[in-house]
Design brief:
There is one protein chain. The protein is α/β, with parallel strands linked by helices. It has 2 domains: 232 residues, Spore Coat Polysaccharide Biosynthesis Protein SpsA, Chain A (Alpha-Beta Complex), CATH 3.90.550; 59 residues. A 7-stranded mixed beta sheet has the order 3-2-1-4-6-5-7, sandwiched between helices. Helix 7 packs parallel to helix 9.
Length: 300
Amino acid sequence: MSCDKIPYVVVFIPAFNEEGSIESVIRKIQTHYVANSAARGYRTEIIVVDDGSSDRTREISRAAGVETVVSHIKNRGLGASTRTAMQRAFEMGADVAVKIDADFQHDPDDIDKVVRPILDDVADSVFGTRFLGGLQYAMPLTRAVGNRFFSWLVSKLTGLNVTDGQTGLMAFGRRYLAQFNIIADYNETQQLILDSYRKNMRIIEVPVVFHKRTTGKSFISWRYPFKVLPTILRHYVRITPFTIFMPAGMLFILFSMLVAVARIRSGLCCFADPSFAVWFVGGVVIMFMGLLADMVKNCR
């Protein structure tokens, strides 16, 4: 924890064209947390990351009393905004950084639910789950199916029981803030779960409520799976490189053996066929890369 008398919590709000709702989110956090430090047991500060908004999101945030408003020159994506905010929170000396969306679908009252396990030293990364805490509206079928699929996929890749792989309310302790890595600028939630798992963080979910969006526009579209799946694959390779590279290398070597057998059965010397060497050496190199990547991963 920080050297202050009470823990220091930074609540960050990534925002892109959210002038219709962000002031309400800020005001509620100020009332329930910033002005209520003694009762909460921790000091709270708000920062906003304006992700290239073309509306008055930036001006409204400052007018509502937010001193730290970080602006991206152009829209870069929620992953990029979250990365910027977490880096800034760490630099500010935060013991806990909390991410909440600007659209008021997540209730600021639930911030304490994701903060408390970290302050109690039972978790390093805490994710709010809408499906256990009270979904306040009927989520569109396509989004519900997509969320279930990505939650299932992340669960399978980590062995965790992830019920909400697209939550917008989460918190991270300083130990994770010092080493987190968001490799893509789009989907932040799955990346942070996978990265927390890779770095052996203590990960838990807590129930939170979720309301229907009444302002702005969701960033999720039909393009979402095509952007998310490659990023998840990249993270998975980083988590278990040995299980990816070793089978691939063995397949290359097996194919080289098949080439050799075919050449021998044809009465030819297998070593005279350059494809044998290409497949065999390629397989050895791939297996070596997997071994090296696994060693590097385990040294961290």
